[in-house]
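> tool_call: predict_assembly(chains=two)
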Amino acid sequence: MIAEEKYDFKPETKRKIIILGAVGLLLFVLGVFMTMRAGGGHEGGHEKHASTEISKNLTASVAPIIQEEHQNHEANAESHQAHPTWLKRIYASLWQNNIFFTGIGIIGLFFIAIQYASQAAWSVPVKRIPLAIGHWIPVAGVITLVLWFVVKEDLFHWTHSNLYVQGEHFDKAINGKSGFFFWPMAAGTFPLFFIFRMIVFFGLWYLFFTWIKKEMLEEDLDGDIKHFYTARKFSAIFLVIFAVSSSVAAWDWIMSIDTHWFSTMFGWYVFASWWVTGLAVITLIVAYLKDAGYLKMVNGNHLHDLGKFIWAFSIFWTYIWFSAFLLIYYANIPEETVYYITRMRNAPYSWIFYANLILNFVLPFMLLMTRDAKRQVAMLKVVCPIIIVGHWFDFFNMITPGVMHHEGGLGFLEIGTAMVFGSIFLYVVLSALSKVQLVAKHHPFMEESLNHHI
Amino acid sequence: MDSNKNFVVGIYEDEDVLLHAVEQIRDKGVHIHEVYSPFPVHGLEDALGYRRTRLPIASFMFGITGTILALFTQTWMLGYDWPMDIGGKDFASLPPFIPVTFEFTVLLSAFGMVITFLIVSDMKPYKWPRQFDVRSTDDKHVMAVDLAANKLSKDDLSRILKDSGASEVNEKNF
């Protein structure tokens, strides 16, 4: 019934991906030079301009805390003169892309786990694509761990040891949170608990990935039903672990950049962003494979389900975004509003802030609303890139403003980094995809999926 | 009741048989009045050649009416007619209006959709539906073929239904 099918990772495709990466690298270098030149003599001026802007714009209630943040930031800048703007921009950009692609990778596994746990049949022919995406997890783990030690001084304010010593730089709020980072070590030394969590999360994710993958591939060989049950068991356990780890990972890797600020919705918010991006990537790869003549059994009904997933979770993301925003807007507590003030009143964050809503909510909501739109490869190929780019901006606005404050920018540097990351990601995913059967051979729900009808 | 409407009614036991029967019978050029089934049969609308419902379009229209109405009402009330200082916010500020706008959109969209459906399917109080066979509410699929809409004779139609897998073929006059 099912043809033996394998994705052929053609040299031509490889070349295209390498060209994408090379162009990205070129843009990156160009961007670095441009930032270096622009940043040379204007830094003092920028600061001045920004502070007048701020005092002009802010309401009296928010001003003191901004001033304080600003002074903190300046004090920091003094103690770390060694790192110029362009280097901080590179770090912020690398970290942002790393977190973005880490999310897509882990969503590959999360998607499979959900399908097993809910015993879904419709997704059986496309499940090898999230499996291939999951191969990014070990790569992401290595990059995250190494990169963190490179960027920590500039990105993670809480790593500065002088914050925990009574004196000029002592910060009561951060000192109160020190156990979350440094336990069981003394505050301001090595963040053992933080690093431990990072390693444990990636370790567990990778472990469950290999276990579930093993069951999926062994099922191809002997067709034994027991692989399905084992994979289902692993998936259920993984989902519980992921519920906790994705939230804590979001606090650790993103929220702790704005160390003073906190939001209880943040874990969900990052998860929603990752999840809808991951769905868009899966759908986009399915669409391209279908265009290339693979996945014959995937028809409008399966695409419809993927489209519904994307549509629904675009709304879910907006719901989470708005829930966080509305409460902070309405309560108007300075220590909370400062997060949105930074993002709404400084270019380029301000236009990204609004573009975010258009790209991630208005466009997907309108374009994918009808049944026909969800069933067409052509429309999905328009909407998925919009969502992927939109959520890249989303992560840009989560990470960069907390690092760069008023000096942030969006230019060749950021676009180049994204292209380099994207090309490596694509290379890893497509080469993983080409190594196994494109469609499961003995999946118990295969027959049901072939007759799927909605 | 006027008895000028005559139907041939086929009873089917299995939904797969029913689906194939619908295809066979339509291929022979017979017009099927309606098929009644105790549960949704996937692909039946396609087999019967029904046009897709336009209910989603109606729903969208009702929804967007709700959105505009809610935004307009709140802006007019709180911004112009009776401005109130709530937490020092602008009189007409968008974010706090969104939850109400959302709820009103959903409300109008849902009610509008239900009412449209009732009107389109001619369901109103004290209207007693025609039942071709009461077993269609239990465990049988029932296919009704209108004699007036087909050129074939009653016997020919009965035979076609029987051949397509109907477990019994009855007549029903209204």
